[in-house]
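INFO  loader      accepted 1 record
INFO  loader      residues=252
INFO  predictor   begin
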Amino acid sequence: MSYRKFKSHKIKIVILNLLLIQIKIIGAQPNDWQDEQIIGIRNEKTHCIYVQCSNIEQAIRDYLEEFIFYESLNGSWKFNWVKSPDLRPENFFENGFDVSYWDDIGVSSNWQLKMDGMSIYTNVTYPFTKDTPHIKGKVLDHYAKNDLPNIVLIYLNDIGNGDLTNIGAIDYNTQNIDKINGVNLLPLSKGNFEANTRQTFYYYYRQSSLETIKVGFWKLVFPHSGRTYEGFQIGKDEIPGRVNGNYQFKGG
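INFO  predictor   done
INFO  writer      dumping tokens
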């Protein structure tokens, strides 16, 4: 073999080895749960959680359950425990996914103590063999279904007499719950689902005949059989309006 052919053959081998190394590197990219550089995905930005009250008495009562968008997560949840992420069911969060065969777990609680897995009380010794990034983490999928009420926002053309120019219904069961976490609904009613909705907390004080609440030019109303939207008194900003006792509601 001549020197020229030998040199050409050697170059081809080097190129081939480089390509194999590149393919190996690409193929070795870890999953997101195995990448030590990823410490969070879709984390919610830091914020203060508070509930806006209309008066001192309501704040002292502190009955959050009476506010319109306060939803406790405590209760019985469906859960499914697997040994590694690749065994978890896909798309379990979609409507219609059958979770009837899943077990139940009380929330809040500790699934390592109540159900599956091993409780770990150590900050020195690793409870598993270190083989980064190929550590198989256990996965527990939670599932709970909450039927949130249909809310109606009414635009008031004239605050004086409450004439209605437009009615827009928002069904919370069809929206992304993360983006309507009990706050300002006005951007959503305009189709802006990317706006920062953590600005005005709407609440609903269900007591006696309190049925609606107004902020600015918008009135928020719970649907009620036999009642029409015109029958709700407007009330002052952020103070629920009472039902007009003299109004003849249709059908009730």
